Amino acid sequence: MKKFWFILFIVWTLFIILVSVIPFSSEIGESEGSDFRWDYLEHFLAYFAFASLYILWRSNRNFRIRNIELLLMFALMISFSILTEYLQLLVPGRTFNFVDAAYNLGGPICKCLAKKANARLTPPGFAFLVAVMNHDDEKAKKLGSQLKMSESADAGMFMVNTPTECAEDIGGIEGD
User: Fold this and answer.
1) Alpha carbon distances (Å) from 79 to 75, 86, 121, 135
2) Is pLDDT of 175 > 50?
3) Which domain holds residue 45?
4) Is the pTM of the predicted complex or chain greater than 0.70?
5) Domain tally, the chain
């Protein structure tokens, strides 16, 4: 199975390179009457899939991955993101965009958060966390009243600690 994920990872990598160097018009896909740019969502999703495929390739049967592998993934994502943006300087109609590079990195960061949420939170604790983050106060109150004290504490500590942990993973803090 590892070979399958490795091949898929390589194919996806080549796909990202290909779509990064295809010339296109200067019109960016903005929604009518909105400042939302679809290309930023595309960057985020492409690199989320990139990180997911890397983890599927490098993790064990329980989808566990060593911290050093996560660190390597983030280093790869940062380098690859900047490289693909830099390559666009050589392509007519394309430009280097730091915001694109940031959205490229958003995918791996969310992948890190999702992986840590899966490992640390129970399904009810995760549902509670999602309701809180979506400002669905009614649902959060209902779910919160059904949680064990330890599940509530885990959800709270997740919100406090995990974003920093993922940022440290990206910043190069050494793992095991």
Assistant:
1) 6, 10, 31, 35
2) no
3) 2-21+37-171
4) no
5) 1
